[in-house]
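Internal tracking record. Fields below are filled automatically when a chain is submitted to the structure queue. Please do not edit lines marked as system-generated. If the sequence contains nonstandard residues, flag them in the REMARKS field before resubmitting.
Queue: standard
Priority: normal
Entity type: single polypeptide chain
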Amino acid sequence: MDPDSRRRHEAFWRREAMDRPLFGINIGFFVQQRFPRVLASVPQGVIGPDDIPVDLFLDDCDDLYESHRDLGDYPFVAAPFVGIPWMEAIAGCPIVASPANFWAERCVGDLSTWQAPPNLRDNPWTQKLLDLLQALVRHSRGRYGVAPTLMRGPLDILSALLGAAELPLAFIDQPAAVARALEGCAAIWAETARLQLAGIPESRQGYVAGDAALRCWAPERLLWLQEDAMSLISPRLYGQHVLPIDRKLSEMFPCVVYHLHGSALWAIDDLVRLPEVRVIELNLEAAACDLEGTWAGWKKIQQHKPVILWRTYGDDFLPWLERVHREFSPIGLSVQVSTNNLAEAQKVKAGFFNHEDHQDRDL
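SYSTEM-GENERATED OUTPUT FOLLOWS
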């Protein structure tokens, strides 16, 4: 990372004065866009750890590294193959592959009998995850950073184990079993996080974690936490059962950033009060959430913490970016955009930096 980029990331992290927001661009959002070799080689149906080809995964990462050079302020970072729902697999869910994606099948009928698997280090899925991380470290040779994989959160693991339809009912029918299971899922999350962080080399440049557009720099090793399944339960149930778990996990690690969807804007009030959550990212999901509520959510987060605004590229990008510049301070602000291809990425880059050039000339 060049000195100017490092200075900008440090200023974002500390919410210090900046002349402009951080800008991040990512090419490819879906698994088939980013890891075509892996997806083409994995058999369809239920798969195991050995079905993930390390060599093809590394080839896909090299292509991603080359395509992301000189795109915005964020250096490329690779994580162990994010197409796999690793935490769910480690917890015991069967993993199914299709021509376009991977998912976890529910595997728990009676929550009162479920136990978190012991000896996670010996779990075949954990071993594969760490093998991929170590292969990335060796293969990248410092050309790009290595980060922990996408781990979602304890509630997401529990939702996968039970099934999305059964999850909210379990909170009502089996609150004690839910509380115990969430603790077990949190233990899986925390131990898997520790094992990955231990395998990431030290860096005097700091660390970038995340994957695709979900990227953030920190002075120490960092993790992304999220609870997408919070949209399936009420704010009261989240505050009673899940928020204490997220607080505990955030306290266990030096740097934690939180990924949030527009379907749970109500959670912002809780999350901004967690001092251990250092940065919050909130998606713009035009087809599935309150758009003006999302703008208000970004502003509320920025009042308390650094905020990452994430969206996909579309024809409305430039007017949207103009609104960002009008309504937000650049202090503690990062804008990250996912594109389908290099041509779209170049349009986003031009939109980012042409705007800054015009502002400089106006001054």
